[in-house]
Amino acid sequence: MQLHPIDIFIILGYLAAVIVVGWLISKRASKSLDAYFLGGRSLPWYVIGTSHGASGFDITGTMFFVTMLFTYGLKAAFIPWIWPLFDRVFRQVYLGPWIRRSKALTGAEWMRTRFGSGLGGNLSHISVVVYALIITVAFLAYAFIGIGKFAEVFFQWDLSWWLLPSADVYAIIILAITTAYLLLGGWYSVVLTDLIQFALLTIASIFIAVIAMDKVTPEALSKVVPEGWNQLRFGLKLDLDWTGLMDQLNKRIIDDGYSWFGIVMMLMLLKGLLVSMAGPTPGYGMQHALSTRNPREAALENWWMSIVQIFPRFLMITGVAVLGLVFFSSEVRQIISANGKFDFEQILPYVIERYIPVGLVGILLAGLLAAFMSTFDSTINAGAAYIVNDVYKRYINSNAQAKTYVRFGYLSSVVLVILAVAIGISRVESIHDITKLITFGLYGGYVAPNILKWHWWRFNGYGYFAGMIAGVIAALVPFIVDPDINKVHILPFALGISTMASIVVCLLTPPEKDEVLEGFYRTVRPWGFWKPVYQKLLAKYPKLKANTNFRRDAFNVAIGIVWQLTLNVIPICLVIRQFKTMWISIGVLAVTSVIMKFTWYDKLGPGDMYMSEDE
Asked: What's the structural domain count of the chain?
């Protein structure tokens, strides 16, 4: 693609701006570990929430969801459950405040709150560090693949070098720029670039949606999609037949494993509930919660994140998918006829190349580069925090100066990037494949020990360590042995192995000491199977109130998932002009918002308080 000089100027201006921003705030960021990795916990919830939401507005994920909407139509509103998107509803309702009360720097350090500093606590700590680094490298490789595919379309220079194609070289260059400003500004760089990215992408998303609605009539769209494409409802089977329109998509639906769409979505919902109950993985989601000023703001940050991330993003996704369907379908068929296949993940860059006007292309590309950078820098920052705080500081050099830790953070960031590039180049080609590896494999091994750590007093650090390590091995070994394995099949295997290891090892080893369990219960105030601990504390603190909010929290989670789903559906319906479904969804959004005002928001206390029913 031949970019206009105006677009090039906008893109280069953005890249220069983020480097300058990183340099200007480098002194502030290098004051301490807290400042470098959490911004000193000084930023308000709406800033952290915007940053968190913007971090999820990444190029790779956007390309993935454009492909899903292109293929599955309005039903693709449910496909974000694969991550699961509604995990932030759980953090909004109760897990965010629980996490923030620990005052830890990382998710691994948080383990001390739950399992203490004995052998079991140390083992649980190590297992989280191992998992955090694996999931960090997996996410970085995921981002590497997406940015390479995206950049190759827009930048016309052939940069292929040695055995590396141009896509990989472009990705390495952009990664180097991202790493440079991250090293300078730490968490402050993450948040500031996220805010810039959110502004750019919101503008671009609105313009793309307007262009799609202007250029594509409902009649034109109906001619290129199968019956049922623009309907939200579905049965056990998908019943979308692309025969005669784009036959290749019938094969893709089978390859994706979504032919029995209703069954798959029920499995996604069940898996999502389990994963969400386990809490955020030890990555940037955990870091955002820990960087808020208090537990109340941790809850509000996650509520705002859903709004920031979903609505503008799906305006863009739908606009691009609709333009691609109407104006690009014939070209896709020609490519398939000539080559036998088409990489549907390229729909986003091809549509931008052909149908977005000069100037807006520059804003959009700058925004999408920022989107990539915000996801990438948040992930690196979180991964480096684990290496510095939970390995170097805890086990190697516990009395170093702040500058020493920050410099080691620089080195850790560079090492993580190199590992991600190596994996991205050598092992994975499809965004969908690595998405499934993360969501079905690595998440599957994470679920059991992390649900048990919140809700069962008897669970100990030995069981946590066994469950996490067994889950990671069960997730990675099948993929290493056979990279082409269906990633969906890894989920029950990893979940089963992890659950068995967690419970068996826990019951064969002694429980944590009373002071550890009592300290955790008093600090975090979880609900669940904590009666023995509560009764011991009651003897010491007769006025101590138990957390009796399970039913209210479960109700708010159910309402919140419906509320969040409407944020997916409304922008899609707006762009494809399904106004009846849109107005119904707006009504549901209003009703669920009013309900949560009374059952969730009004129950949030001031500052560090999160009131229970009897407080």
From this structure: 2
